[in-house]
Automatic annotation (TrEMBL):
Keyword Chaperone: yes
Rubisco accumulation factor 1 C-terminal domain ranges (all copies): 302-448
Pfam families with a match to the protein in the record: Raf1_HTH, Raf1_N, RuBisCo_chap_C
Keyword Isomerase found: no
Annotated region (Disordered), positions in chain: 1-38
Domain Rubisco accumulation factor 1 alpha-helical: 170-275
GO biological process: ribulose bisphosphate carboxylase complex assembly
GO cellular component: chloroplast
Native species: Paspalum notatum var. saurae
InterPro entries: RAF1, Raf1_C, Raf1_HTH, Raf1_N
Rubisco accumulation factor 1 helix turn helix domain sequence ranges: 93-151
Bias type Polar residues, positions: 1-11
Protein name: Rubisco accumulation factor 1, chloroplastic
Length: 460
């Protein structure tokens, strides 16, 4: 153990004996040059006064380095495992290139050799020159091998007896198309591909349909399909393609293909409805445009407005209307206050009872005419409105409680399962409902934060 010595101050000759007694436990002072060299030595511990190495010594806290197993060196860094299978690790470079050139074994067995060569400094062009495998095929083999390895995860419970289906030369092309899906979707899509014996193009369309399905939730009929089912995602994609077809015959053909692959009952009923309408149109029968499942049309039967920031403040006339939530039910809507008296000159309004929630809206004509019995229903999600163009945003539905008789052209508010809903009069008439809770006058959408206009710079 290294002991640090401290330089001793110069003493008078007469005090030599006294200094000797005081420093008897310390080594003698060293020359100046040696002390300078010793100052650069790092000490692993410092001996403090209290003994000469016995039990009384006190040391600074010290943690020993971790010990390696006997016969091995301590290595804090562990390199990543070799990408090569065990049967290829003992081969030299010439032998590895020979395996790739002669395609020895199954494709997923020699595919890791391509990644290993790339790590050793080979480029796709040099690998192609040595093995004859093009750069495109190299990428396909490597990616397909990674997709196949992901199917071996025990959490996915992918049937092992289905893996040999991808061992043929066409297996890489099939698995390569699943690269953009997550692990669960890959396993489901692989099962579907094996069950229906899909070709690479079909697998690509299936993967694209599964990837895009969550983004199409605002389209008509989306809720009827199950996103966890590859077959339903595929059927919904064909349903969308049928709507884009110009020729009616092409639309019918796409819907028939969707009907062959659809899986759930709700999705099958939705495809059959579209197919029936398309066949009627192909036969020359009259079909109401925009009509979808359950009377859902592309265009609403009432005025839908989007508020602008500051519109209420700039309006010459405003209305103060009571607000109820969609979860309050018809009883709360009927108990909302009604206007009893209005002072047009001073803008004073009297109601028959107290109320907590109010909404201030511009004095639009249809609303002003029914202001005495008007009420505002707050919907948390605009997609509950019975038309296809509704978006996911909170909306206010202004309705008149004095108009309850159902006609086919109107839009009405009624209660279903304790919740206020908006339905078309045509659907209510088909269900035999002659009276509703209120008739919708106008639907108000919230202002948008972004500016939809085009600036002068963009025109230039």
């Amino acid at each position: 153990m290294l002991s640090l010595s401290h330089p001793q101050p110069q003493r008078q000759p007469g005090a030599a004996s006294t200094a000797l007694r005081r420093t008897s436990r310390w080594p003698a002072a060293t020359p100046v040059s040696r002390r300078r060299r010793a100052s650069h030595i790092a000490a692993s511990a410092i001996l403090l006064p209290g003994g000469g190495g016995g039990p009384g010594d006190r040391k600074l806290p010290f943690t020993p380095p971790p010990m390696a197993p006997p016969g091995q060196l301590y290595q804090p860094y562990h390199p990543p495992p070799s990408p090569l299978p065990a049967n290829f690790r003992n081969l030299d470079l010439t032998q590895r290139l020979e395996v790739l050139r002669d395609r020895m074994g199954l494709w997923h067995e020699y595919a890791p050799l391509i990644s290993a060569l790339a790590r050793d400094g080979f480029t796709p062009s040099s690998i192609e020159e040595a093995t004859g495998i093009s750069g495109v095929e190299q990428n396909c083999l490597v990616v397909a091998s990674q997709v196949r390895d992901s199917l071996l995860d025990e959490k996915l419970a992918f049937p092992p007896d289905l893996l040999p289906y991808f061992d043929s030369l066409g297996g890489p092309d099939l698995l390569y198309e699943l690269r953009f899906l997550n692990a669960r979707q890959r396993a489901d899509a692989a099962r579907h591909a094996v069950a229906h014996k899909l070709e690479p193009r079909g697998v690509r369309d299936l993967a694209r349909a599964m990837k895009e399905f969550p983004r199409r939730r605002l389209e008509d009929g989306w809720a009827a399909f199950d996103g966890a089912s590859p077959a339903d995602c595929f059927a919904f994609a064909r349903l969308r393609q049928s709507r884009e077809a110009i020729d009616v015959a092409d639309r019918v053909a796409e819907l028939e293909r969707a009907l062959k692959v659809v899986e759930t009952d709700a999705a099958r009923a939705r495809v059959e409805l579209e197919l029936e309408r398309a066949r009627k149109k192909a036969a020359g029968e009259e079909v109401e445009e925009g009509e979808g499942e359950g009377g859902t049309a592309a265009r609403p039967g009432v005025t839908v407005v989007r508020l602008q920031y500051g519109e209420v403040a700039d309006a010459s006339t405003v209305l103060l209307l009571p607000v109820v939530r969609e979860t309050d039910g018809v009883a709360a809507m009927e108990s909302a206050p009604r206007r009893t008296k209005t002072d047009a000159d001073l803008g004073l309004v009297e109601v028959d009872k107290a109320w907590a929630r109010w909404a201030v809206v511009p004095g639009w004509g249809p609303v002003a005419e029914a202001a005495d019995d008007a009420v505002v229903i707050e919907l948390a999600d605009g997609r509950r409105l019975p038309w296809r163009t509704a978006e996911e945003e909170p909306v206010l539905v202004i309705a008149s409680r004095s108009q309850k008789e159902v006609v086919e052209q109107g839009i009405y508010v009624l209660e279903k399962e304790g919740r206020l809903v908006v339905e078309r009069g045509r659907k209510l008439a088909q269900e035999g409902i002659a009276a509703a809770a209120a008739q919708v006058l106008i639907v108000v959408r919230p202002p948008r934060d972004e500016d939809d206009g085009i600036s002068d710079e963009e025109w230039d």
